[in-house]
Amino acid sequence: MRTDRRVVAFAFTILCLFLQACSTLPPSTAKEETHHLPPANDTAAARYAHAEVDKHQNQSGFRLLTLSTNALLSRVALADQAAHSIDLQYYIFANDMTGHLMLQHLLAAADRGVRVRMLIDDNNFDDKDHLFEALDSHPNIEIRLFNPFQTRNPTLLSRATQFMLEWRRLNRRMHNKSFIVDNNVAVIGGRNIGDPYFDAGSDTHFRDLDVVAIGPVVQQASDAFDAYWNCDAAYPLDQLKKTDDSGQRLAAARQVLKKEVRAFNQSDYAQAVINELPDGPTADARGAWFWGDAELVADQPEKIEASRDVPALRIGPKLKSMLDGAQHEILATTPYFVPGDAGTKHLVSLAQHGLSIKILTNSLASTDETAAHAGYVHYRKALAEGGVQLYELKPSWGQSQPSTTLGKSSGISLHAKTIVVDDRQVFIGSLNMDQRSKLLNTEMGVIVDSPGLAQAVSDFFHTATLPSNAYQVMVDPASHHLVWLTTADGKPVIYQSEPDATTKRRTEVTLLRLFPLDSLL
């Protein structure tokens, strides 16, 4: 009898989860449509930005954020300088140490009267302690979730059930990343908000790139933000939450954030951040800018609703045009490289017509996604044989890593997404060179015509691809097999198989290669 009851209880639980997952989302049309505010001109920071832009009519200025710690403090400084508005859009805004630091500074800005709009993709949204709900109750803060799950804080089983039943919708995510202050300055690039992106995590440390931007491109970024903020897939958090005591929780959230930030300020990490700040230009110090004609490119939010590929909705054609205009050299950095058959043939064709094409991606030992690496393996040999020069980043700058669960890496992992063409044109953004970025997720970035910025990004590429930091993947002319060239202790080393990768990772890739997953990677 006890067994029968357990079976009935289990079946009832599954039925409840099924019905819950089948429930429909409330209409997002109930939300208020809002738009970006005019560029501020009544603060010292605004006057400085306008004065710089006025010297370079119709051009935008950029500073490259290479150091993870500088990227964090630049965002903090910009939030502290805000006088009227902060608009931010992220795939991940983690509920961790650096996420709490940013929330505390956003809350302080809202207390000063700054309007804060936060748009976060719901795929990795974590609000188990209701901090985001509490801040959303502030009269100057509004949080919206992009393409949300139907239940808040679902169990793993409930989440999996939802995903299976609404696979087509929930498999499409907003991968965009921007941070816009007073419609005068923006941070655009590859970093999310979370410890791994600012060297504060205990596991993976991502190597990434952002730019701080001023000039006409900021207005374009604000227009793109508004398109997503007001689209049907953006749901107000207060329309989705199940509790109605967020106002009471705001006071408690203030104390939690205050305690967390105090602990952060006293940490060794915070001291290291201060010590690592460069003397050169950062977002919170005046200095030189890289100037050039620039265009903010962003997929249309309707991309996630399309039943087929609609090139007009995505930025891929503009990037292809940029690549096709190359005369001498293409340098590309991407953590996940799954070019597909057409992309592989196109890159090989360009290489065989005399272009130098160099691509930096993750090695099996450094990647945080073994599934993406399994997709990359399908095309690696054809690319190398066709003249495309491939480099794979070492973990921990060449140090071997221990085995970790679920294929996640420890140490250094590449996360930057950049393209440099002919030492002049530059793309920096959120788009990986894979089929998921091309067809499923929404992406954004900036295309800039600036030799100075191109040189700075090229320097990052050349440093990362030094033999001490990366493996060069080539085809051995004798065996016709792939080999990995690098150095160890200053001496040349050749590997005959994936270097520094654990048996577990090798097995994962072998198994994953058996499945036709390219379109999902």
TrEMBL record:
InterPro entries given for it? PLD-like_dom (IPR025202), PLipase_D/transphosphatidylase (IPR001736)
Gene3D superfamilies, alphabetically?
A: Endonuclease Chain A
Please verify whether the record's keywords include Signal. yes
Alphabetical list of CDD domains matching this protein: PLDc_ymdC_like_1, PLDc_ymdC_like_2
Q: Domain (PLD phosphodiesterase): give its ranges.
A: 170-197, 410-437
Q: Which PROSITE patterns match?
A: PLD (PS50035), PROKAR_LIPOPROTEIN (PS51257)
Asked if the keyword Thylakoid belongs to this entry, the reply reads: no
GO term, biological process aspect, one? cardiolipin biosynthetic process
Q: Which Pfam families match?
A: PLDc_2
Protein keywords: Signal
Which stretch is the leader sequence? 1-21
| One example GO MF annotation | phosphatidyltransferase activity
Identification of the protein by name: Phospholipase
Organism of origin is: Dyella jiangningensis
